[in-house]
Amino acid sequence: MFGSWDPAPQPSSVSTWVMALLVLFVTGCGQSGDEGTFLVSSADSERGELLALSCRVCHTFGADEEHLLGPNLHGVFGRSAASAPGFEYSAALQEADLVWTPERLDAWLAQPDDFLRVTT
Predict the structure, then answer these.
(1) How far apart are CA 22 and CA 51, in angstroms?
(2) How far lies 64's CA from each of 41, 69, 83, 85, 89, in Å?
(3) Does residue 17 contact residue 52 with C-beta atoms inside 8 Å?
(4) Are 69 and 95 part of one and the same domain?
(5) pLDDT of 10 over the 80 cut
(6) What is the C-alpha radius of gyration for the chain, rounded to an integer number of angstroms?
(7) Do 84 and 42 sit in the same domain of this protein?
(8) How many separate helices (H) and strands (E) can be counted in the chain?
(9) Angstrom distance (rounded) from CA 30 to CA 45
(10) Is 69 in the same domain as 83?
(11) What does the alpha-carbon distance between residue 87 and residue 85 come to, in Å, rounded to a whole number?
């Protein structure tokens, strides 16, 4: 019925994605000195993997993986919104002039219906 689609998470790619996010949060988000070290030492990678599994229902994370219901999230931080090649985005997101940061992604996930009204 579903063809060759396998909804089961790929632990190695999920683990890689979670670790990449942890590195990004420490090095790419304006953190410096002891604060960045604190983030790594206090990060809960098991919880991160569990959270990533819920995203995996609609998204893929690997560089060569195809889009699902949502776009592939590989390299999302620092990328312009609505810019993943081959994914059809809403007109509102296509018109939004924003780059994904951890803070913006948090805001999107917290209130996706209100996010574009606040940021545009």
Answers:
(1) 13
(2) 30, 16, 16, 12, 19
(3) yes
(4) no
(5) no
(6) 15
(7) no
(8) 6, 0
(9) 21
(10) no
(11) 6
Element (H, E) at 42: helix 33-42
Question: What is the H or E stretch that residue 93 is in?
Answer: helix 91-95
- Type of residue at 91: A
Instruction: Look up residue 26 and give its two tokens.
Output: 């420490």
Number of structural domains in the chain: 2
pLDDT tens, position by position, 11-49: 455 555 555 555 444 444 444 444 444 445 566 888 888
pLDDT one-digit tens code per residue, 67-105: 999 999 999 999 999 999 999 999 999 999 999 998 999
Environment class of 96 (CB within 10 Å of its CB; exposed 0-12, middle 13-18, buried 19+): middle
